[in-house]
Amino acid sequence: MTNSFKDKLGQGGYGGVYKGKLQDGCFVAVKVLKESKGDGEEFINEVASISRTSHVNIVTLKGFCFEGSNRALIYEFLHNGSLEKFIYKGNASNSDHQLGWETLYKIAVGIARGLEYLHRGCNTRILHFDIKPHNILLDENFCPKISDFGLAKICPREKSIISMVGARGTIGYIAPEVFSRSFGGVSHKSDVYSYGMMVLEMVGGRKNIDVSVDCTSEIYFPHWIYKRLELDEELGLQDLLNEADQEGVRKMILVSLWCIQTDPSNRPPMSRVVEMLEGSLDSLQIPPKPFLSSPPRSPLDSSTVMVSLQYDSEHLPSRQPMSLGGNELCEMCN
Q1: Where does this protein hold ATP (predicted)?
Q2: Model confidence band, residue 312 (pLDDT cutoffs 50, 70, 90)
Q3: Catalytic hit among 130, 210, 245, 301
Q4: Domain 84-315 falls in which CATH fold?
Q5: Are the CB atoms for 311 and 262 separated by under 8 Å?
Q6: Which parts are annotated binding residues?
């Protein structure tokens, strides 16, 4: 299928992704997982959750390989890869592929629709728990598709709060209640938080925490952009050429700031997020400032700074993204 794993598309903590081709000529992306630890919960999660879905903004699972400890997932192939390649300024890989504001706005709406479907459109509610630019794939028309359901949890639609041991997700996008239940129960609103943080990165063209900036007040982008909105200042974003761009970006910012409210009950459900993005800008109000304090100025690397984020001045435990583990490759994919 992959011509002996000749064409590698990417590498992550879970293993590698390779381009393949089925006998009918259809191209696929083969995600080969490292040797799984424990009972392979993440693999089962991914197959069980994504096989229940059918939506234009959710990646399609074509099949899977389960052969002893060798495991692989076969997805539809998406020509433009992941969103993170296109949004961060200064990233060498996107120097010739900077997306326009109209495209970014459409991507934000598409991801919101995909999450709304996961939360409300399936027979069982699916909580993703790892929404971030790396897990949003783009087709040839830059239509976004949510991928990587390894950390997902399936729960009854009528159940609003779920029980969960420990934290799951990627630092920088994890909702505060996932770190500490003192902020509230874990629910679909945790995905809403991750979505808001991701869209702010799309707007800023940078990680939300950036130790490379000169001014300390600009390290934490959500606070910097909130202050600009409060003072009714120019947003200071590049290439806002026309009124439509400005309106779309302002909606993305306001909606994102609502999504990252510290109290989960203050965040809108994804159905409301879609309405806000597609509705009138005049109907959107500036939300309360999220109670997040930016990290101290230091020469630490970005991952360390993310860990040092404080919620209500209380240091909370953190955890790196969970991933599967194996180096052996299954015969079918080879």
Answers
A1: 31
A2: very low
A3: 130
A4: Transferase(Phosphotransferase); domain 1 (1.10.510)
A5: yes
A6: 31
